[in-house]
Design goal:
The complex is a heterotrimer of chains A (257), B (485) and C (183). Helices cover 20% and strands 16% of the residues of chain A. Chain A is α+β, with helices and mostly antiparallel strands and 257 residues long. Chain A folds into 2 domains: 76 residues, Ubiquitin-like (UB roll), CATH 3.10.20; 125 residues, Alpha-Beta Plaits (2-Layer Sandwich). By secondary structure, chain C is α/β, with parallel strands linked by helices. Chain C is built from 5 helices and 5 strands; from the N terminus they run E-H-E-H-E-E-H-E-H-H. In chain C, strands 2-1-3-5-4 form a 5-stranded mixed β-sheet, with helices on both faces.
């Protein structure tokens, strides 16, 4: 059996390796599937569900769904974007996200996703949970008000820093990031040079005293929406459902892995 | 003053319902029906000083701007000055200092340009039923068709300066602990320079108008609060006017210097705040004179009165002429605020002209730092008056204490006395509040241009409520001035 | 099923008319529920094509500020549209009195009367004004939608507005004030 599969993504034929997820294949083909907890380079986590696509009519998370030969996958549809909008809204009202004074503003993936999806005002009531700030470490701050439980810090600390500083505790609405060994950051192995500190998509895990050093106009999403460099602005397939074939490596000009 | 508790308490604030800004004035009468006192109640509780606790200090310059959408830059820069101390970065690099100064003088300029619109509307200054002769004296201005257009363009220019230095016209992020996050591009600089001559010309014209206006009306001030007071303002160590940085000077009604405190960090040795049960806004006073005698006014009148000179030539000439009104002593007439504002407007234009020629504005050495501290105070002159920001942080960099004294608070006593003065003239022995009285109350408050909130009102909301209260506390009459009327 | 709501008219003798070059200026915060009634009214007007003729303009704003005086001065008639606190009628349509007080007690705040006064006094405009206050109920929470009752009041206001007589005016050069500003 060939290790190559082919599936249709919004009417375009995508070629992938059998071992790839829909998300991996899309990224290589230069197609953007909205996502928050997923980032290339880390094992997929499948918790945020923003990358929900429909595979043969069934919704699933593109980041953990293997590419299936002959499947029809929907990504950029009104229905799916409406679901994504709901998810992003729920993330906002479930925490305490004060973009107005947050140093991540302009560089924040949650905020950028809200802009991209057209979230302007919440349609759900704010939960206003009581969350705390762990600023015990001299150089690192963990603001639970803004954490969206994406586990990027957990995975990065474990897989790239070799440390396992972060983990989850509790379940459901009580679920939160905790610091191993169960105390405050200052007693952990966390260090200001950890790559985990660069992994946080929002303003939850931050290096202290760095805020607002990048001026307005120089921030990641000041001029381009999130997902723009992923394929929409360049390399994205032109035209509608003409079944145009895309070889991932060739079209993106990248080496096939 | 807020509590001095060191430990950080988590403040949970329910989602804020719509802030309604309005002023309420109660006029209290004694048994004989004479006005004993009038009180201007500040009825909003913003709670900022409390819910900002527990946030990291580098958020302050950005967060604190949300107190106001009309004049946020003053808060931005004042908070930055305070947190500079927390990182040991109070000795800014030349570029940082000049960018901040440009930002401040730019926002000052556009804030004062707002008053252009009022120069030609004597009704705004004297009320709708003032003596027609008084209102007509500004026939020159009323017939001056360019005045309002200039006001708009001056505001735009000032807002461009803000955008170029702070990053955004409203709620920018340019000032950070120890410096700034950007300097000026050549394109921005040249675009601003292109209009500076026009701005100077228009500022001169406005000043001439304001001068003529004040001179012709000085005799007709009436009951609007021409009374003596102490004044507080920042001045440079040599006594020059300086709106960005300086020493805290207090002068008395005769112009004698009561004190001049060079160390901003020691402001609490100079100023105390009294709390009265009927208002959320506090009453600052000079400790040296006590609460009864130690109240003071701030703002354009205070600054022009308190300084020894202005270091730009045209504004200085204007100041000398202004002071000649009272033979070199402080000018007390509330209406003179408007002339004082236009002197400052011209001064800002002159300063900006000088700054724009300075190559440091384009530099790339933006921040500095030194020994960190746990406490910092910033003082600067906002358009409406002296502004104080005071923060204390824990070892973890989270704010444990925040104390703000905004300009309107410093003018609290002054406003109350103005309103009392008006009430005495109009209400003694009266049973009813008239439209004329409402006008006069508004005019009295308006001279201070208070910032009571950035509220937007639904029609039918109440910007001004005046109540007449007898000696037993019963409300005899109540009048509401709605935004729509 | 509630009874039809009474509709109030204007205080002018001949009844309101939308003559000449008309500006509809709706203001409020659409993210605060019924506070967005002003902008919502404007959106509905535009959707109905009311501003298709050259002599009709629809604008929205978060709040009134002093620069609106310059804008308003370039028209013959301005209708300020805003949410109004709850009351018996679904909306209130009134003349903004000329010669009314000009401004609030602080320069931070601007009212329709103040804006109109400045437009006339500073720019020498002869613009007349009405306010259309649409009753709203909920202003406290965050949300980008109108409540049911606010929605009904909005429909009443739209129906009334579309029924107002109007005389079209031939396009003329823009008023001096606007020319001054825009060059």
């Amino acid at each position: 059996m060939s290790d190559r599969v082919t599936f249709m993504l919004d009417g375009h034929r995508i070629e992938a390796y059998r071992s790839q997820t829909i998300m991996d294949a899309a990224i290589e083909a230069g197609v953007y599937i909205p996502r928050l907890c997923h980032v290339p380079g880390l094992d997929p986590w499948g918790s945020c569900r923003v990358c929900t696509v429909k595979v043969n009519g069934r919704p699933c998370a593109a980041c953990i769904q293997p590419a299936m030969d002959g499947a029809t996958v929907e990504n950029d549809t009104d229905e799916l974007n409406a679901w994504r909008r709901e998810l992003v809204e729920m993330l906002f009202v479930g925490g305490n996200h004060f973009c107005m004074s947050c140093e991540k503003s302009g560089n924040c993936e949650l905020q950028a996703m809200a802009y991209r999806l057209g979230v302007t005002a919440p349609t759900h009531p704010y939960l206003a949970p009581e969350r705390d700030v762990d600023a015990s470490h001299p150089d690192i701050m963990l603001d639970h008000n803004r954490c969206i439980l994406c586990a990027r810090c957990v995975r990065t600390s474990r897989d790239l820093d070799g440390k396992q500083v972060f983990g989850f505790v509790y379940r459901g609405a009580e679920r939160r990031i905790a610091v191993d060994p169960g105390v405050r950051l200052k007693d952990s192995e966390a260090d200001v040079t950890d790559r985990a500190l660069d992994a946080c998509p929002v303003g939850a895990l931050l290096r202290k005293r760095q805020g607002f050093q990048v001026p307005v106009g120089g921030r990641a999403y000041d001029h381009e929406p999130i997902g723009a460099t992923d394929g929409e602005a360049e390399g994205a397939p032109d035209g509608a459902s003409d079944g145009e074939s895309l070889e991932p490596a060739a079209s993106a000009g990248r080496e096939a892995s | 003053m807020t509590s001095q508790v060191e430990s950080v308490e988590r403040i949970v604030i329910e989602p804020v319902t719509r802030v309604e800004g309005h002023g309420k004035v109660t006029v209290h009468r004694d048994r004989e029906g004479n006005v004993s006192e009038a009180r201007l109640h500040i009825v909003e509780f913003r709670g900022f000083e409390r819910f900002i606790q527990g946030r990291p200090f580098w958020e302050m310059p950005v967060a604190v701007q949300r107190l106001c959408g009309i004049c946020p830059v003053s808060h931005h820069l004042c908070a930055a000055k305070a947190v500079d101390r927390l990182v040991g970065g109070e000795d800014l690099t030349p570029t940082a200092l000049k960018i901040r100064r440009l930002m401040h003088y730019g926002q000052f300029f556009q804030s004062h340009a707002l008053h252009f619109f009022h120069l030609a509307s004597p009704d705004l200054l004297f009320g709708a039923d003032a003596d027609p002769d008084v209102r007509n004296v500004l026939g020159v201005a009323v017939a001056h068709p360019d005045l309002a257009r200039q006001g708009i363009l001056m505001r735009r220019w000032g807002q461009e300066i803000i955008r170029a230095t702070a990053g955004k016209k409203v709620h920018g992020t340019g000032a950070i602990p120890g410096g700034v996050n950007k300097s000026l591009t050549l394109a921005d600089r040249d675009a601003l320079v292109a209009e500076v001559d026009t701005m100077l010309e228009w500022s001169r014209a406005a000043l001439a108008l304001a001068r003529a206006y004040t001179m012709d009306n000085l005799a007709d001030i009436g009951p609007y609060g021409d009374f003596e007071s102490n004044y507080v303002a920042l001045v440079r160590s040599d006594g020059a006017l300086d709106i960005y940085d300086g020493e805290l000077r207090a002068i008395d009604a005769r112009g004698e210097v009561i004190l001049q405190e060079p160390d901003n960090q020691a402001y609490l040795d100079v100023i105390a705040e009294e709390v009265r049960p009927w208002s959320y806004m506090k009453f600052p006073y000079l400790r040296a004179l006590g609460p009864e005698k130690g109240w003071y006014r701030v703002g354009p009148l205070a600054r022009i009165n308190a300084c020894d000179y202005i270091d730009t030539p045209e504004a200085e000439a204007a100041r000398v002429e202004f002071k000649a009104l009272a033979d070199g002593r402080p000018v007390h007439a509330a209406m003179a605020y408007h002339w004082a504002r236009m002197i400052e407007l011209l001064h800002c234009a002159e300063v900006i002209e000088g700054l724009l020629g300075d190559v440091d504005l384009l530099g790339d050495d933006l921040t500095t730092s030194g020994t960190r501290r746990r406490e910092g105070v910033g003082i600067l002159e906002a358009p409406r008056g002296t502004l104080f920001h005071h923060y204390r942080v824990g070892e973890d960099d989270l704010v444990t204490l925040c104390n703000l004294i905004v300009s309107t608070t410093s003018n609290n006593e002054g406003m109350n006395r103005s309103v009392t003065s008006v009430a005495r003239h109009a209400m003694d022995g009266q049973e009813q509040i008239t439209e004329a009285m409402m006008n006069q109350v508004e005019v009295a408050i308006r001279a201070y241009d208070p910032c009571l909130s950035c509220a937007t009102h639904a029609l039918g909301n109440m910007p001004l409520v005046v109540e007449l209260v007898d000696d037993g506390g019963a409300v005899i009459d109540r009048r509401v001035r709605s935004a729509a009327s | 099923m509630t009874a039809p709501r009474p509709v109030t008219g204007t205080q002018s003798e001949n009844g309101p008319r939308l003559d000449g070059r008309v500006l509809v200026l709706g203001y409020g915060n659409p993210a605060r529920l019924d506070d967005g009634l002003g902008p919502a009214f404007c959106e509905a007007l535009v959707a109905d094509g009311w501003d298709a003729p050259e002599y009709r303009t629809v604008q929205t704003a978060m709040q009134l500020h002093i620069e609106h005086a310059a804008e308003v001065a370039g028209y013959d008639l301005v209708v300020f549209v805003d949410a109004m606190l709850p009351g018996p009628e679904s909306f209130v349509f009134e003349v903004v009195q000329p010669g009314a007080r000009h401004a609030e007690f602080t320069t931070h705040s601007a009212s329709p009367a103040g804006i109109l006064g400045l437009a006339r006094g500073l720019f020498g405009s002869e613009v007349r004004g009405y306010t259309l206050g649409i009753r709203g109920l909920e202003f406290g929470e965050f949300g980008e939608y109108l409540g049911g009752e606010a929605r009904r009041n909005l429909d009443d206001a739209l129906q009334f507005f579309h029924g107002l007589p109007a005389r079209a005016e031939a396009p003329v050069r823009r008023a001096a004030a606007a020319e001054m500003i825009h060059g």
